[in-house]
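Trying the structure run again after the queue cleared.
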Amino acid sequence: MNDSSNNLFNPALDIQRLRELASKNIFLGTSSWKYDGWLHQVYNRNYERILKGRHVLNQSKFNNDCLNEYTTIFPTVCNDSSYYRLPEEKNLEKIEKDLPDNFRMAFKVPEQITLREERNFVGGQMLSGNLNPTYLDANTFKDYVLRPIENVFKKKLGTLIFEFSPHFFDKTWGTGVVYDHEAFVHDLDKFLGSIPKGFSFAVEVRDPILIGNGYDDYLNTLKKHHVTHVINAQTWMPPIEEQVKRNGIITNNHIVIRALTRPGMKHEDAKQRYMPYNETKDPMPEMRKTIAHLMTEAERNQWVLEAYVNNRTEGNAPNTIHAILDIFDEMNGIEREEIFPVPTLESWDLFG
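Done. Tokens:
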């Protein structure tokens, strides 16, 4: 089924809806933002240059300027690239300058904190590495992750997300001792108890055992430390419409949702199917409905909610967000008129 003719992102309408929800602490945005497949959809400024008499995309200008245009539409974004390197203030400052005061940027915490095994690349191949000495090390996190991000972003800082792979469970990595789920929860408990309070933290796990019925240690640990569990659509996890049925899945008054890939579909397969991410190819109606339901619950209970949608979920994240907004309006009896034609967004300012 191809859904590219329906639920098309409409900035003229959706800016209004996103702004209303943000005023109620319900924030919808995307995972990352540098997608030229969103040209003439999200991005309508002039990013062209002339090459041999032809108009072509000026990739450097687009990469440098598209975040500023993004912030005129969406109230939040998740910086996924932060997972791959420790932050440097000079690089963070280049990003922060493009954000309005009311914008919030979430960050994936670097893998230096959340991978138990160091990455070891030789000739383009990832080989088995050594145990990571900074895995869940509170001092490394405070000094080399939290401090530079907080120094630069201050009130623009959203949630810091700790993502944990399912692949280090039930392995010894040469230590002679199997690392099981209980050991992980023990280490996580110690870590969360040692890091500063007063920030928004969330944990994303990708092993369904940790949220399975009959296993409460993980969710109870998050509740103990007032940390949010990330409800995620992801390769190894059950669909989010199944996850939300789990008693205790909401661990505090803050919901974080990450719609990443379709359950059962690998990351690389999703890239091959959906690039260049300019249309919806595989709608997930139950996922959309579940996110809209959680938004309704958050509004009713006056909770904070952040939802980040990736292109690799349905093919085009802005269209997915538009569809979720439509369902939310329908659930809550909100009637709106579509706004056409969609104007160029050069003069629009979400927080003006």
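The chain has twelve helices and twelve strands. Worth checking whether this holds up in the mutant runs.
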